[in-house]
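Re: that chain you flagged

S.,

Sorry for the slow reply, it's been a week of failed gels. I finally had a moment to sit down with the sequence you sent. For the record, here it is as I used it:
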Amino acid sequence: MKRILVFLVLSCMLLLSSAVFSTSAEENYGFYCSQCHGLTGKGDGINATKSQPVKPKDHTDKDQMGRLSDADIINVIRSGGRATSKSTMMPPFSGTLTKEEIFALKDYLRDLCKCVGP
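Prediction finished late last night. Pasting the structure tokens below so you have them in one place:
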């Protein structure tokens, strides 16, 4: 009985710690994406300078974002610009973000543009 109680307590602690340390899509966007795409997603982040060869995508542009499928968005986040024939300035995040975090970012981008893809 004592072992079961210890197991339950440790399991609860593990679940609570993962909830405390999980990062939301909005936090990930703010940390990884906002430098180029801006905090509100308009493509006006602090690294979005006129010297860049390509202006960062405006994630609030309903028409542009509406042309991208969910798979397109996930692929760009996962593989970066070079792998998707987009700007090489966009780094891949497959080694940084989990699959779940990438899917959550896709949903967050859909919220920013208030659109759905094809």
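What I noticed first: DSSP finds five helices and no strands in the chain.

Talk soon,
D.
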